[in-house]
Structure formats: structure tokens, C-alpha cells
Design a protein that fits this description.
- This is Oxidoreductase.
- The chain is of the alpha/beta class and about 450 residues long.
- It has a domain of about 180 residues: Rossmann fold (3-Layer(aba) Sandwich).
- The protein is about 30% helix and about 15% strand.
- The strands form two sheets. It has a nine-stranded mixed sheet with strand order 13-12-11-7-10-9-8-14-15.
- Strand 12 and strand 13 form a beta hairpin.
Length: about 450
């Protein structure tokens, strides 16, 4: 089932009708004291962080396909209604729910967001927003029509890091910026294998059919769920899907990159079942006013950069001569005057050479802050306050998360299609590969019962 923006109009209409007069305008008359009524979908694993981050609000429903994974949350909140099927939860609790927080595997983000939009609910969704480029673009238009408040689970985007980077670059402190590097030690789960893991009995606490959701029916294996799913094309988007929505924000937002015009990849362990074991992905971004073109290099699977301008004798980089791996995750933005380092979450930026950074600090050489800073430094609470005030957070889907996710997911297409792929951001199509264009959308038919009708 290949969902285009045109064929989504039915679902977008449902969401728009449900929110033609957005529920939060009347539901929250006292923005200072009213607690947001939240349903959390996926309360084990990453969902525990959602529970913690939203603990000041009012949980009205929990949903998880695995009672064992959810047991800790259920014990902590014994009186919150529990469900295994999000569709049943919406049907039975829809009137009680004002917002949903989604912490499921990647392949279920898209259908659950659609279901939430059809019911007019505000949405917090874990990164990456979707599993495919097309899903991201559909959701971008759908949430805009629905008028609900949304947020991507990228905690670094509320911090100052990428804002500092943009201000420093615009002030010319790095010179003319032309290159960026981002790397991670992920995957820390299997990738690059050729065969599906062997069938094993489904645990009694686990509803495997609901976990599969829109994905094709397949035999259960602990080699897939609950943890290793990120490495499979059917369910995840590999290391870049997991980490790029954190670290790549340093360049995506810091340099205002937008969609690339070309992407290519060097991989080891290419497979039809799993994403590659390791990869180096090269993106090419066009210049904009005040900045020239940028080449961005993404590296995963323990691949690390070893030679970056202005970075000498630094523990961050790999050293091929000694075999030193260097820092597990990080970013560098390279200009003609200096390079900028940022941590995993695009935070704590600093210049290289280090002496240059010290000199700027000593001489008050850093520019004044020109970009707005969120009052809330929690991306969860930025979303909650956005719902209460009718203000979109910085990490909202329509203006940020969809395009950012889509950019990273163009990299996953290069993992599956050899050669340099030329991309047209205006038509959102590859100009030299029909195979790549097919991979913009899901390679399997969604099971329709998991989508709103």
C-alpha cells in the first residue's frame, strides 16, 4: 500500500474535522494549573523516559503490547487504564485523552500518529518520526491540516547548541563553512546479516501480531523484538535513524541545510533483510544566502573520521596509526577559519583549535544571542506548555521534524542503492534512479487494519 499525499486526503480530512475548532482551546481554560491528559503508547523501554518526563501531568491511559516490558510502569501507576491495542484505547478512552506520547518501534510511528490525528490529539513522537521519506511528508501535511501541537523526541533541539552554532557561523567566526562530519558507534544491535532469525515461541506476555502492526506477518524471534528491530528494513532505519536526529541537528539546524541534492554511501554488509553493518554516507547540500554548498559525511558501525582541519592531537578523533577509535559519537562543522565540535545531542559546541575558542572567550569575541531560546529545557515540557498556550514547540512536525527525518532517511535509501543519487528537493524525487524513487515509500503493503479508515 503506497500512501501518497493525494491518497491521504481522507485521513487528513478526519483529522481536520476533528480539530476544526481545536479541542485545547476550550479544554484547558487555566494554562497554569490544568494538567494535560496524556495517553502513552509504548510504556516499556524508551517509554519509561516519557513517563518520567511527563510525570507532572495526568496519565489517563497506557498502551503496550508486552506486559512484561510495561510491568515497571504498571506497578508505579496501578490505577491508569491499560491497553495492548492502541485502536481499542482510542475507541474506549478517546474522550478522556487530550494528547498522546508515542514510544514504539519506528514502523509504528506513522500509523499511530495518523490514528491520533484522526481523533484530534496533540502528539509527542519519538525519533525518527517515521521509517520512510514518504511517511514523513504525509505527516508533515497532515499535522498542518489538523492544527494540533506536535513535538519530536529530540532533546538536544531545545538546548542552545545548534543555536550557538548558527550564530557563530553567521557571525563569520568559522569562516566560510563547507563541510560537516557526524559519527556514531552504533549499531549496537545486529546488522548486515542475510537471513531472518529463527522462529521461537512467542512469550505469554507479548502480543506479537500487535507489535508487527502495519508490517507483514512474520514468525516471532527475540532476535527481532524487543530490542534488535532497529537493524531490520521492515521495522527500523539503522544507526542513522537512531542517532542522526540527535547529532546531525548540529549541521541541519545550525547551518539551515534543508533537503540535499545528492546522496551516496559506502557500506559493508549490504542485505535485503538487515541494514548494512557499517556505512559512510555522503550528502551534498546547496548553498543559501550567506553560506556556500556543504558536504556532509555520516559514519556509523565504528567508522570514525581521522583527519579534520584545525583538529590536532585530539582525543575526539580516530588515529589509524595507533588504532585508537576516538570518541563514540560526535560532530564537526568545518570552515575556512576553524572547526566546531559538538557532542552527541548537538550540545556544548566549541571551536578547534582550542586556543581560538579560548581567545574568543577572553576577548568577548562571541556574538550576542539572536535566536530565541526555549524557556523549558525539557522537550517533554516544551510540548506540554505548547499545548497549554497554543504554541508550536521548536521540534514540531510540520516545520522541523518531518523534513529533518526525511533528510536522514534519504541516507538510508543510499544504503540500499549503490552509486551517487541525484535528488531534486522541489519535486522530492531522485532524477537518476527509479529504484531509489521506489524506496522513498514503504517496500511492503501496510496491513490496512492498523491504519485509520
Amino acid at each position: 500500500m503506497n500512501i501518497s499525499r493525494r491518497t491521504f486526503s481522507k485521513w487528513a480530512g478526519l483529522g481536520a474535522a476533528a480539530t476544526a475548532m481545536p479541542s485545547w482551546l476550550g479544554a484547558l481554560p487555566d494554562a497554569d494549573s490544568q494538567k494535560l491528559k496524556i495517553a502513552v503508547i509504548g510504556v516499556g523501554g524508551r517509554g519509561k523516559a516519557h513517563i518520567k518526563g511527563l510525570a507532572s501531568q495526568h496519565f489517563v491511559a497506557f498502551c503496550d503490547v508486552d506486559d512484561a516490558s510495561a510491568a515497571e510502569t504498571y506497578k508505579e501507576y496501578p490505577n491508569v487504564p491499560r491497553f495492548k491495542d492502541y485502536r481499542v484505547m482510542f475507541d474506549k478512552m478517546g474522550k478522556e485523552i487530550e494528547a498522546v506520547s508515542i514510544a514504539t518501534p519506528d514502523h509504528m510511528h506513522y500509523p499511530i500518529v495518523l490514528w491520533a490525528l484522526a481523533h484530534g490529539k496533540h502528539i509527542f513522537c519519538e525519533k525518527p518520526l517515521t521509517r520512510t521519506f514518504e511517511e514523513a511528508m504525509v505527516l508533515k501535511n497532515a499535522v498542518r491540516e489538523a492544527g494540533v501541537i506536535t513535538q519530536l523526541g529530540n532533546q538536544g533541539h531545545v538546548a542552545d547548541g545548534w543555536r550557538n552554532i548558527r550564530e557563530w557561523v553567521q557571525a563569520g567566526l568559522a569562516g566560510d563553512v563547507y563541510e560537516a562530519y557526524h559519527w556514531t558507534n552504533r549499531p549496537v544491535w545486529p546488522q548486515g546479516l542475510n537471513n531472518w532469525p529463527k522462529k521461537q515461541p512467542v512469550p505469554a506476555s507479548f502480543d506479537w501480531n500487535l507489535w508487527l502492526g502495519v508490517a507483514p506477518k512474520r514468525d516471532y524471534s527475540p532476535g527481532i523484538a524487543p530490542f534488535n528491530w532497529r537493524g531490520f528494513w521492515d521495522y527500523g532505519s539503522g544507526a542513522i535513524g537512531d542517532i542522526a536526529c540527535h547529532s546531525m541537528d548540529a549541521s541541519y539546524s545550525g547551518l539551515q541545510l534543508g533537503l540535499p541534492t545528492a546522496v551516496s554511501a559506502d557500506v559493508s554488509g549490504r542485505s535485503d533483510v538487515y541494514l548494512p553493518k557499517a556505512s559512510t554516507i555522503t550528502f551534498e547540500f546547496p548553498g543559501i544566502e550567506g553560506r556556500g554548498p556543504v558536504k556532509l559525511t555520516w559514519m556509523d558501525g565504528d567508522r570514525r573520521p581521522s583527519d579534520i582541519p584545525f583538529v590536532d592531537s585530539d582525543k575526539i578523533l580516530a588515529d589509524e596509526a595507533t588504532g585508537k577509535k576516538g570518541m563514540a559519537n560526535g560532530s564537526f562543522i568545518v570552515g575556512t577559519k576553524a572547526s566546531i565540535f559538538a557532542s552527541l545531542y548537538s550540545m556544548y559546541p566549541s571551536f578547534r583549535p582550542r586556543e581560538y575558542h579560548k581567545e574568543l572567550r577572553a576577548n568577548n569575541g562571541f556574538p550576542e544571542e539572536t535566536l530565541p531560546r526555549p524557556v523549558e529545557k525539557s522537550h517533554f515540557m516544551e510540548w506540554v506548555n505548547g499545548v497549554k498556550t497554543g504554541t508550536q514547540p521548536g521540534g514540531n512536525i510540520a516545520e522541523y521534524a518531518a523534513d529533518f527525518t526525511a533528510t536522514a532517511l534519504l541516507g538510508t535509501i543510499a544504503l540500499g542503492v549503490p552509486g551517487k543519487l541525484e535528488f531534486d528537493p522541489k519535486t522530492q524525487q531522485f532524477t537518476n534512479s527509479e529504484q531509489a524513487n521506489r524506496m522513498l515509500r514503504s517496500q511492503y503493503e501496510y496491513r490496512k487494519e492498523f491504519l485509520p479508515g
